[in-house]
Amino acid sequence: MEMNGEERIAAPREKVWAALNDPEVLKQCIPGCETLDMTGDNTMAATVKLKIGPVSAKFNGEVTLENINAPESYTISGEGKGGVAGFAKGGADVKLTEDGLDTILSYDVKAQVGGRIAQLGSRLIDSTSKKLAGQFFAKFGEVVEGDS
Question: Residue 78 pairs with which residues in a beta bridge?
Fold first, then answer.
């Protein structure tokens, strides 16, 4: 699965960059996120509970930040295991561009799933992924813009 897009955030790039690197902010914004803790300089452990169609699963995994070019871009990648439900892994290239007083956050995501979740069909997985991404960015924008 591949997905890309961009979001306009009414905040300066440095503030958006700081929020993208703050586990507390990310935890608030990731749909179903129960825990997100720093385990190293550029790694975090996460627990996320999701429902995709008829399959509910709790994923435990690790998130890594790579190719860091502060405050402009990074690659975030991760892998989560959901027991009998299967696994999900992937990454996103994230880029921040200043546009006046706002910041344009652009992303290019590549992900794959396996196990029972993969049997649900690509249309359901794609639509759920787009919905979850939309929820993340809407919440992220609220949190960053509201934290003035």
Answer: 63, 90
d(CA 86, CA 47): 14
Measure the N-to-C terminal CA separation of the chain; round to a whole number of Å: 35
Adjacent-strand bridge partners of 86:
none
pLDDT band at residue 84 under the 50/70/90 scheme? confident
Amino acid letter, residue 128: T
Which residues pair with residue 5 across a beta bridge?
A: 107
Residues 6+ apart with CB under 8 A from 56: 49, 50, 85
- DSSP symbol at 130: H
Asked if residues 86 and 116 have their Cβ atoms less than 8 Å apart, the reply is yes
Q: Whole-model pTM above 0.70?
A: yes
Residue 77, beta-bridge partner list = 64, 91
pLDDT higher than threshold 70 for residue 126: yes
